[in-house]
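Lab channel / #folding
Pinned by the channel admin:
"Please post every new chain as: sequence first, then the structure tokens as a reply. Keep commentary short and put observations after the output so the thread stays searchable."

First post following the new format, from NK:
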Amino acid sequence: MNTKKVYAIKDAAKLFDEVTEYTIWKGIREKRIPYIKLGRKYYVTKEDVYNAVYRDLLGDYVEVVHSDENVS
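Reply from TO:
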């Protein structure tokens, strides 16, 4: 089973120096960042935020490499 850690919007923004809560909310509204809504809280994955933000800046050349994968 492939599981990903999800973060509240505020916590996800703290993972990146250059990403704000506003940036994440904008990505959600524009349907660029997938989310999970539980009650009144929204959750996103680090990978989805990273991909949405950096694809805007660099185009389709960016893709997250998962840190839990073994790289040879």
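NK: The longest strand covers residues 41-45.
TO: also worth noting, Strands lie at 6-8, 36-38, 41-45.
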